[in-house]
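question for whoever is on the cluster today: can someone run the full assembly for these? two chains, 225 residues total. i dont have access anymore since they changed the login thing
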Amino acid sequence: DAGVTQSPTHLIKTRGQQVTLRCSPKSGHDTVSWYQQALGQGPQFIFQYYEEEERQRGNFPDRFSGHQFPNYSSELNVNALLLGDSALYLCASSLGGQASFGQYFGPGTRLTVT
Amino acid sequence: GENVEQHPSTLSVQEGDSAVIKCTYSDSASNYFPWYKQELGKGPQLIIDIRSNVGEKKDQRIAVTLNKTAKHFSLHITETQPEDSAVYFCAVPGGSEKLVFGKGTKLTVNP
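^ ran it for u. tokens below:
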């Protein structure tokens, strides 16, 4: 039973560039949530995708956008990268769009902006 | 919005001792309380969760207790082992879709 997978594992970008991160949810799950984790902090919610729609957004600017595909996989896009966007980006998989059904995290993508 | 406070931020114990981490939350309507373990270079792993209709849940050496009146819940690890060393996060739902996390507790188990 495949768990949550994310790609790439590491990424280095320059300020102003754009980046796309990818996530495949756990088998049987239909919901993907994205979180940003700065060094030494807890994960911060970016947004959630369920039924190919963004259902809830955290306190992140419009430079952060996403998409969910019919197979439930998802992409996170970040435009006009800033140094402060350097973080671990985590994808969490769940069922039915409900956090209380359990969210299972992937290994993350480490983004470094120089 | 929901606010979660987690204590202590660091905890050092001797192998075999018990460890307790506590979280307090603000929204009395919260009904789901998970705990995550994050090892270096990995994503958070859900290790145990509890719902508001239960006061305690145990899974081998790990237990979670919930006090809804006081709005706090705790993670208890007994007979700690070096492989329990990690950062532990509590979380509560912030609305139906997202989790709001505490700032984490770095647990070190000394052999």
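summary bc i know u wont read the tokens: Chain B has no helices and eleven strands. Chain B touches chain A through 25 residues (CB under 8 Å).
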